[in-house]
Amino acid sequence: MTKRIVVTGGAGYIGSHVCVELLAGGAAALVIDNFSNAHPEALNRIRELAPGDLEVLERDLADPAQSEDIISAVRDFNPDGAVHLAGLKAVGESVTEPARYYRTNLGAALTLIEALDAADAKNLVFSSSATVYGDRNESPVDESGLTGPTNPYGRTKLFIEDIVRDIAHSDNRWRIVNLRYFNPVGAHASGRIGEDPNDIPNNLFPFIAQVAVGRRDKLQVFGGDYPTPDGTGVRDYIHVTDLARGHVAALDYLAAKKTGGAVDINLGTGKGVSVLEAVAAFKRASNRDIPYDIAPRRDGDIAEIYANADLAQKLLGWRAEKTLEDMCADHWRWQSQNPEGYQS
Ligand code: UDP
């Protein structure tokens, strides 16, 4: 039977790549998105890359006035399960507007859970984050690592994990995977879909890409005196296509799983890369200069975190395949072909 999957936030950076992988594999997708941080053009590009059964519902999952509508649309779609990606994701903004983050991220998750319950489609893949680990673990960190996010955004991710654990505990028909993403970067190899930040990018790769393309003068490297090999922060960057395939693998795992429950799974490469290594790799891929200054550390940043990704290999049969060179080349192809993002 063809899989029918609800994808909340399906027009966004990760969601658009998840949709392409689902559709390419013959699944049908219902995207629910309010386009608050996504562009409708992404849907045209998804259709172009992976023609198939793609439906779109423009709604705000966090708005109680829209929930009845959403619940009935999900029921009508008759899904097998869902990938939940919709939510706010800017760490700094979450510190200044915590109430909005809690209402939006928790509200959206709860509405989706109600809709899946009503549709009797109790397979759920939730977009969590390595940020739930905070700064309390030695790397490589596995899923038994201590949790303790250091900002409201990260706490919304951990709270939703807790909520779905309670739900799985209350009703053993629920089968749930919390995917703890490390640092998603890159773009579809076609250059047609990619990350299109609204404002000044918070994250390293979109910022580097905008410097390379000439939209920004120089990169600020946040901290040059961390206890890492070159003094700059170390992260586990993962190609967004590998990440998207991890969602498909998680859905397949849930479909085949005999028992209910919620499980946490890291999606990373298992390899740490410093800011300066990332800059050097991007410079090679783009053949552009990437001027930078060493700036003070950014509040709340940690020196180093990268994944132990063995559980994903064991349970999902998934592992990251793309290299740092692929991430940079594909990110650059997207950025150079779409210098102003989807409105180019
Ligand atoms: N970073 C940086 N300059 C920037 C953005 C990020 O030096 O303009 C560094 C940041 O300090 C961290 C790494 O790049 O060491 C990854 O940051 P990002 O915000 O992309 O992801 P995080 O792991 O912090 O969620």
Largest sheet properties: 7 strands, parallel
Write down the overall mean pLDDT.
Answer: 97
Total number of β-strand segments?
13
Q: Low-confidence parts lasting 5 or more residues at pLDDT below 50?
A: none
Please identify, by name, the CATH architecture of the domain at 4-184 and 237-268 and 308-320: 3-Layer(aba) Sandwich
Tell me, what is the CATH class of the domain at 4-184 and 237-268 and 308-320? Alpha Beta
Strand order of the largest sheet: 3-2-1-4-5-6-11
Overall helicity: 25-40%
Distance between the termini: 39 Å
Continuous helix count: 11
Kindly estimate the percentage of residues that lie in beta strands according to DSSP.
15-25%
Question: Would you mind describing this structure in some detail?
Answer:
The protein has 344 residues and is an alpha/beta fold. It has eleven helices and 13 strands. The protein has a domain at 4-184 and 237-268 and 308-320: Rossmann fold (3-Layer(aba) Sandwich). The protein is 40% helix and 17% strand. β2, α2 (41-49) and β3 form a beta-alpha-beta unit.
Describe the structure concisely for a colleague:
With 344 residues, the protein is α/β, with parallel strands linked by helices.
Task: Break the fold down into its secondary structure elements and pairings.
Elements: E1 4-8, H1 13-24, E2 28-33, H2 41-49, E3 54-58, H3 67-77, E4 81-84, H4 91-96, H5 98-118, E5 123-129, H6 152-170, E6 175-181, E7 183-185, H7 204-212, E8 219-222, E9 234-235, E10 237-239, H8 240-256, E11 261-267, E12 273-274, H9 275-286, E13 292-295, H10 310-316, H11 324-337
Parallel strand pairs: 1-2, 1-4, 2-3, 4-5, 5-6, 6-11, 7-10, 8-13
Antiparallel strand pairs: 9-12
Helix pairs in contact: 1-2, 1-8, 3-5, 5-6, 7-9, 7-11, 9-11
Uridine-5'-diphosphate (UDP) binds at residues 183, 202-204, 207, 219-222, 233, 235, 275, 298, 301.
